[in-house]
Predict the structure of Potassium/proton antiporter.
Amino acid sequence: MSDQQMYIAVLIACGVLLAGVVAVRISSRSSLPGLLLYLGIGLLIGEAGFGIRFDDARLAYNIAVLLVAILLFDGGFTTRWSEFRPVAARAGLLGTVGVLVSVAIAATVAVLVLGVDVRTGILLAAMVSSTDAAAVFAILRRLPLKARVRTTLEGESGVNDPPAIIIVTVVVSDAWHEMDIPTMISTGLFQLAVGAVVGLVIARLGQSLLHRISLPSAGLYPLATLAIALTAYSAAGTLQASGLLAAYVAGLWLGNQALPHHASTEGFTESLGWLSQIMLFVLLGLLASPKELPAAILPALVIGSALMFLARPISVAVCLTPFRERFRTQLFISAAGMRGAVPIMLATIPLTQNLPGASHMFHVIFLLVVMFTLLQGPLLPRLAPWAGVIDRICPQALNFESSPLEGINASLVQFTVPKQGQLVGMWGTDLRLPHGAVLSMVVREKEIIVPDASLRLRGGDQLLLAVDSGLVERVQGRLSLLNEGGPLARWLVSGRNRRRLLDGDA
């Protein structure tokens, strides 16, 4: 590549990225989901638009999997464990058993109605059986959903990608002729289990490393955290396990620890998530050929209808009925099974293997995702109030920033008192910090205040605490509870518990 070609390539890439950023703004001011705009950008610059031809399915798949891994890491990092833990079993069932039920039902409809062979029917069903993390995070986080419902859907989108990829990979390969169903299931369970263990082990080792080193720049901590997640992803893949699940588990663990410069890292992962989302949809839009889409309309309608009105509702009922979930909530969760980049990415796998009819399957899935998004994007905000899954306005969460102090076993912890929260109006002495943690400074409207017994907190106050490194997580958890209010917060500041709190036992 000459210098001139490199400049043109960078110019095109930056133009596409800026168009993607503008598309985010357009989608936020309208009901049109952003992922459709990204796909449109890919089609526009492709062979039917500006004439850029891209048909390397293997390269597209490899890039897409890496981008999905980053998206899953971002999703895990921004998921609160306190919200995820109560729904982990539900999300796990939806992401495994739910996928198998959906594949079985949708594949049966494809074989009976479309007349395709069993292998093609399973592939079509498996490609769309997985809900998409990028679509779920982009659309559902705009709605003030109850934490249980939102976290169930987000957890499902993080768990069900690996099973879908395993099914498609096995069916496309020679293993389709060599393995029986029990062997396929045991292989899939092995990949999921090892992927989860690898993600957890590497995340815990990475956490220990981040706490032990004092880096010269705050910007190095987000880079190190990303490197830990991608190490988990690649290590699991090297072991023939699920790298995507490893990345999600690593993000879930690291995001719920008191990491140095946690707020900066979360902002960095959010930026990476947006970049990955834009690149992913533009890349897959670039791979599509508009002239092949008309022939895919009827199969897409059949598979999409079977999935939306039969396979998805049944799979949700099978997984959530044992938890006595309300019928309306089940209907919302069923309708909120967003399809996005992952199904299209899965449709590139048959292309890489030159499977007969692979191009037609790709465009069927591409068109199905577009139809699903056009339907679900405007529907969900109207369905959520009817289903009773809208949450009341709750206190703003505390965003902590911590930095280890070199040479001593202590960290500086900083946060801002939110405008909405129980900390507003609280006396500084009511924080009841344990021994080893000291409120050292308050910044109020650019004025530095030395805390004393007369200090009363206001919204917007910036608090700086010096904390023993072993107490950072305990202190942050206690302050979060105080801000949320409720019986536990009142117990924390009650006089009879003052001594226990000062001793660090509570």
